[in-house]
What does this fold into?
Amino acid sequence: MTDQSEFAVRVESRNAGKAVVWVAGEVDLSNGPELEEVLVDAARKASRLVVDLSGCTFLSSTGLRALLEADKVRTGDASTIVVVVPDPHIRKIFEIAGVDSRFVLVDRDDEPDVEAGSRAVS
It folds into this structure.
């Protein structure tokens, strides 16, 4: 049985320039640099990037930094990074840090914004 806190990250490239990065376990100072490397690499290569945090049990500021660094390397024609974040506690971290507007935050990977990769207009 796998420990829930065990960190894991996996990238899947899909058609039409889309990449999905799955993150599981706890993201903290010990593995934040690894996550940042994976996210920045995926952000450079993919025109549409989805980061799925549905398996993430803890996200420190190091994890937020990794996402922000990935956002920085996006080119002008790349869509906004979509972050699947169903856990309200982890979503609250984005809000408290004031970075929730930098990403498209969705609860599930089958929501329309995941495919569109664009911010919803209210």
Residues 117-122 have pLDDT under 50 and may be disordered. The radius of gyration is 13 Å. The chain is about 35% helix and 30% strand.
